[in-house]
Amino acid sequence: MPSELQSRLEPVIPPTQGRAEIVLEDVDFGYPPARTQPGVQALAGVSLQAHHGELLAVVGPSGCGKSTLLELLCGLRAPDRGSLRCPPAVLMPQRDLLLPWLSALDNAALALRISGLSRAHARTRAAALFGELGLDGFQSARPHELSGGMRQRVAFLRTLLSGKRVLCLDEPFGALDAITRAEMQQWLAGTLAREQPRTVVLVTHDVEEAVLLADRVIVLSPRPGRILDTVDVPIEHPRGRTDLAVLELRERILHTLSVGARV
Ligand SMILES: Nc1ncnc2c1ncn2[C@@H]1O[C@H](COP(=O)(O)OP(=O)(O)OP(=O)(O)O)[C@@H](O)[C@H]1O
Ligand SMILES: [Mg+2]
Q: Which end of the chain is least crowded, N or C, by CB within 10 Å?
């Protein structure tokens, strides 16, 4: 039985069974030299897969190519080598990038407007979800009148309403304090569980967040980012940050990151 939220999130995405939805094989990517900067090899030999409905977290040190990986998945950049297959994907960038002159509601409705919906129709669709995201009463607020957490929720709503099969979330809670961050993690897990399945690639600095939310965690080395480990997280939801299984996986990933940083 589709949930109320699910039935309001069109278009319905037909399920694909069996084969992986995202496939990267031996992908390299480098930024060419510019006038003031030498070239930078961002990713090297990255191979990974994700099936429809999976949440893949990507962790790794700053500058190891995590945002670059999401830009490749969204088709904003092309690999230098190797192959990449990914259905239409939408990027929630590292900074919320809300348009300051638009209201919260119009910002949330932006992807729908871009996809061709009338302003009235797009606003109606976005408004229907405002309450569910704890944003009721703030439809007309401009981004500077919202808290950091509220801006992130508006940006997430815009991403969700794009109707794309794949959501690429770049540090969606990176700028938030610990309490708001924990609330947002719970809210994200709940929203994704209620909503029709999407494939999600979540970039985060926070290993605990990765283990709390993901089906699988990809651990990247310092630049050029290579995959050091792929960690399955076979733990039932809801997960608690002090659950033994969560703590064990968190330790394993932190250990891999610290060894990777010394190599
Ligand atoms: N547009 C660009 N032009 C040139 N170099 C870039 C560009 N974007 C990123 N880089 C370089 O590529 C490398 C990887 O950057 P990227 O933003 O993917 O890292 P990241 O893992 O997302 O880092 P962070 O955790 O700090 O967000 C860095 O060395 C960065 O300086
Ligand atoms: Mg980044």
A: N
